[in-house]
């Protein structure tokens, strides 16, 4: 597996497993806490407590899920370039999925990313 800069940063956050003093949640137990700690420790972003509170109130997966659902029914399509890239990835998954392990499929997607 190719360990990208983001992969190594996420691994660092997860290995430290710092429990939030505010939410009492660790990054291993919550995606939002993982994102907040990633931003705090591995970017140049200096988050205020208010900004952290706002981030904790947002469910990012719900946002992306809603976009996918809207696009599935033909609303608000992506750019032609992104649509083509998604079609190619989907086709590739359909071709290799029956014969490929989950780890192998992930490697293939990262390589062709």
Strand and helix layout:
Elements: H1 5-16, H2 31-42, H3 49-57, H4 60-72, H5 80-96, H6 102-112
Helix pairs in contact: 1-2
Annotation, overall tally of beta strands = 0
| Through-space gap between termini | 14 Å
Query: Which stretches are poorly predicted, pLDDT < 50 over at least 5 residues?
Result: none
Tally of contiguous helical segments: 6
- Helix and strand element order: HHHHHH
Q: Please state the oligomeric state of the protein chains shown.
A: single chain
Question: From the helix content, strand content and strand pairing, which structural class follows?
Answer: mainly alpha
Mean pLDDT: 88
Radius of gyration, rounded?
18 Å
Helix content: 55-70%
Percentage beta strand: under 5%
Categorize the overall geometry: globular
What does this structure look like?
- The longest helix is centred in the last third of the chain and has 17 residues, at 80-96.
- This protein has helices at 5-16, 31-42, 49-57, 60-72, 80-96, 102-112.
- The chain is globular.
- It has 6 helices and no strands.
- The chain is mainly α.
List keywords for this structure.
single chain; 113 residues; mainly alpha; 65% helix
């Amino acid at each position: 597996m190719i360990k990208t800069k983001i992969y190594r940063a996420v691994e660092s956050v997860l290995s430290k497993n710092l429990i939030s003093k505010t939410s009492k949640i660790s990054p291993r137990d919550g995606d939002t806490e993982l994102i907040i700690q990633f931003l705090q420790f591995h970017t140049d972003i200096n988050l205020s407590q208010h900004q952290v509170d706002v981030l904790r109130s947002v469910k990012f997966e719900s946002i992306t899920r809603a976009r996918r659902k809207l696009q599935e029914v033909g609303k608000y399509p992506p750019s032609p370039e992104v649509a083509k890239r998604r079609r190619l990835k989907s086709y590739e998954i359909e071709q290799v999925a029956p014969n490929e392990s989950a780890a192998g499929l992930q490697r293939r997607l990262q390589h062709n990313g």
